[in-house]
Amino acid sequence: MSTEWGVSKVMTSDLSYSSVARGVHALVQRMTMYVDGFNLYHGLHDWARCKWLWLDLEALGTLLRPQAQLTRVKYFTAPVLNDPGGASRQQTYQNALTSHCQNVTIIQGRYQSKLRTCRKCGHTYTLYEEKETDVNIASELISDAASGSCDTALMVTADSDLLPAVRAARRINPKLFVLFAFPPNRHSQDIKTQFPASFSIGKGRIRQAQLPQSVPGKASGKSFHRPDKWK
Questions:
Q1: pLDDT grade, residue 8 (50/70/90)?
Q2: Euclidean distance between CA atoms 66 and 96, whole angstroms
Q3: Is residue 229 part of a domain?
Q4: Does residue 2 fall inside a structural domain?
Q5: CA separation (Å) from 5 to 120, 204, 219?
Q6: How far is CA 75 from CA 35, 72, 97, 213, in A?
Q7: Distance of alpha carbon 19 from alpha carbon 96, whole angstroms
């Protein structure tokens, strides 16, 4: 089913990472936050179902790293398939998010439906697989590293499949400071080993970083209200 929210061991090439990070850390950092919507949604949903999905991503980024200047939030998600209620809630959230936050960009992937058959009973069902999110995150991160548009990359995910892209970004821009913020109920020891500044997002931060119950639209005059199912 598709979702609604759509060094202790260091490699040789990373030996200078901690010293570079300290140098960048001493300055005012321009930070871009890359949000894996699929990973974050499932972490939040496993923790508290729908209660904390009305999340202000800009507020969250500022709470997680207040010493940095959060200049951009890139939110990677995909449109819900075959669930009109879920699709409506997702669109309401995205409208509220972009109306309330000045620096959020939503980058869409897609879901692909596949038929599966249960080996035991022979029942056929549809499975939805998320596509393109990892590729989109990787391409945006590498592009930003090449342009030097940020000093810090905050990766909101526990998906270790992104590690090759992060290493590639740091080869392009060795001064780029990268850390991961693991969503609730999500963790990766591989990520923590290679990027020891990474941390788990405290549940108190999630509670603090909620959008207003009603968010005025930017141009239409329409307000976007927190869905009843998310209260």
A1: very low
A2: 23
A3: no
A4: no
A5: 32, 20, 23
A6: 5, 10, 10, 21
A7: 40
| Cα 178 from Cα 191, distance rounded (Å) | 11
pLDDT, one tens digit per residue, over 65-107 is: 999 999 999 999 999 988 999 999 999 999 999 999 999 999 9
Q: Of 44, 129, 136, give the one whose Cα is nearest residue 93.
A: 44
Residue 114, strand partner residues: 127
> What 3-state class would DSSP assign to 136?
helix
Structure tokens at 117: 């058959």
- Is residue 120 packed enough to be buried (19+ CB in 10 Å), middle (13-18) or exposed (0-12)? exposed
Cα separations in angstroms, 192 against 53, 186, 200? 25, 12, 10
Residue 32 lies in a domain: yes
Taking the C-alpha atoms of residue 96 and residue 23, their distance in angstroms, rounded to an integer, is 37
- Dmax of the chain from CA atoms? 61
Question: Residue 110 maps to which CATH number?
Answer: 3.40.50.1010
Burial of residue 197 (CB within 10 Å: 0-12, 13-18, 19+) is middle
**Residue 219 covered by a domain:** no
Angle at 137 between CA 157 and CA 91, to 5 degrees: 80
Find tokens 């141009």 and name the residue: 219
Give me the domain span that covers residue 157.
12-210
Q: What is the pTM of this model?
A: 0.84
First to last CA, the chain: 22
Distance CA 210, CA 219 (A): 22
The total number of structural domains that make up the chain: 1
Helices (H) and strands (E) in the chain, counts: 8, 10
